[in-house]
Amino acid sequence: MPVETTSETTARFFSSYAHDFDAIYGGRHTGWRGPVNRYLRASMRLRYEKTIAGCDPIEGRSVLDVGCGPGHYGIALARMGAARVFGLDFAPAMIDLARAHADRAGVGDRCRFELGDFLTYPLPEPFDYTIVMGFMDYIAEPRAVIDRVLEVTRSRAFFSFPVAGGLLAWQRRLRYKKRCELYLYTQDRVRSLFENIPGTRFSCERIARDFFVTLEGVVEDLRLLRGSAHRALQQMGDVPLQDRVGLQPDGVPAAFRLQQLHQLG
Hints:
By secondary structure, the chain is of the alpha/beta class. The protein has helices spanning 6-24, 37-40, 42-54, 72-79, 92-105, 142-152, 167-176, 187-194, 219-236, 254-264, and strands at 62-66, 84-89, 111-115, 127-132, 153-162, 200-207, 210-217. It folds into two domains: 6-217, Rossmann fold; 222-264, no CATH class. The chain contains ten helices and seven strands. It is globular and about 40 Å long.
């Protein structure tokens, strides 16, 4: 019998959990406004509210929702004026729910939800906003996801990372032990993932049981830098980096600048 991969295990769990998860965003008593979920699901409500508010302006903009689940973020933004929403998830039942919700909301013509792996899925042109909520919890290599987000985002990206430590984190890890792999984070770990990314700036805020990260900057410049790196290195040929002396106009040694560019390329 073939061995199931971690991503397949996670996809299977979330497909089985899709309708229960969808109900968290549901009606007055079943959703996060219910008395129990106001406490247990506070992070979900806060990160939803902060993400929707952060996608401003939204009129005529495009949105990518990574790990879109039942599509609530993208559908809400489409109803607020987004021109194009693309949601990606690895759980088939989540995609079915998202498509049905979009049609019922009257925005099915501007929302597209597909089954696939974010790291390998052939996405169309870059998006103005990228949403990565409740996704990093299940990702073993967060750097790869962040790098891909940088490649496909024009303006701003939003991430959530579950907080390590405390009773609720311990309880959640115990609950997920037989469901799928779960990855929790300290604030220092989260900050280390975003520090020193050229051309960007970020903020990291604790909201209940999550760290909420906003990443923004001139991502187009990163693409230009990557192109410059390739051209410069091709012109230099096999000359070692330590021999490429001289200063750039900003006073940075050329060898150091080229090494940075090489890492970007």
